[in-house]
Write the structure tokens for this entry.
Amino acid sequence: MRNLSGIRLPNMRLVVLDDDAATTEFMATVARRRGWRASTATRPDVFQDLISADPPDAILLDLQLGASDGIEQLRFLHTRNYRGNIVLMSGFDARVLASAQEIGDSLGLTIAAVIEKPVRIARIEKVLAAIERPPKPQAVMMPEPAGPRAISPHDIDQAIAAGDMALQLQPIVAARGAVERAEALIRWCDPIRGPVLPDAFVAVAESDGAVMDRLTKWVAETAAQHYRRLAELGEPVQICINISGCNLRDADFPDHMAALRERMSVPWGGLAIEITESVAMYDLDATASVLARLRLKGFAVALDDFGTGHSSLTTLRRMPFSTIKIDKSFVQDLLTSNDSLNIVRSVIQLARDMRLSCVAEGVENAEVAARLVELGIDAMQGYYFSKPLPFDAFAEWLQAHRAANPSSPLPTAGGGLGTGCLS
């Protein structure tokens, strides 16, 4: 299809749903000028009939529809397995539009754009132009050779025995510049598979209690070795390890950890524990008991990814944590989202009021770091300071950091306990 000047038009179909007839016709007219075949509806039942009869390439959907609303229509489109583009519109604030977009995404719908009212012609044209662009041709996919078989608990056991596992360290930097602790992150480089992400094998290990125990023991022993080597270099930092829900279901786990620390000649506070909220919430009573015993035996305990679960405050109230780690999803939006800023500010104040230390994860630039310091954060972690590093590289980074920040005090042998202990 071409217009009088010979320019090819898209010949695509659009349906507009808005309870104001003038608005629907206005948007349809803009689309028709671009060569679209546009239909309008001011009632959900008419809209649904249009969709069912001939699914369009795109839909302009207002969220306010009198007795109905746009969320109901998104659910209807989901039941019809609609695969076209959806543009959401609303006169409400941006937060309502963002929530609607997340709902659409969760339903598997394609939310092409969101538009705040009043709608401008230029905005509609820009959105339609983006939809009109044909997708890039897909490369012809050749059959892939059969990959390695699925990971089994036995594979993980063999990797531990063969020395294919390693711990990398990522520094946690105090607001005043000192590096008093580091998080230990497990890495697996399989001779056949290559690098294997923790998400791909930790859950497999958890399916076999004995393998998970051996993996946790290896992590703890390796972390203890790293602590001792750093102490010998004159750079003692607390090493924080992540533990599994399987460990928290073992009432004797605190005793095993204390015995390991004594055997490895690591002082109180040399090792610390991190758990996520989803792990903590599995069995509140059993988890609280294990964590309390860990604290009594000299292990600081951090609640990781705070704010991403469904019962953060319940978890925080019932568990004997020493630290809150603010999830990176809030930290990374700190400068662009008032909601994220207010959440971070509130968590920092909550930690202070509860006599807990507070660490911000996912710090990626100087501007975010400076804002966090202004807000009163205790410590920060992220690629702005360093990515996770193998031991030798971490030791070099640590020495260079201390040389560049001579005013930062060295930590005590155990990194400190009490409310000042950050992990």
Summary: Residues 209-232 form the longest helix (24 residues). Residues 254 and 294 are 5 Å apart (CA to CA). The domain at 153-420 is CATH 3.20.20.450 (TIM Barrel).
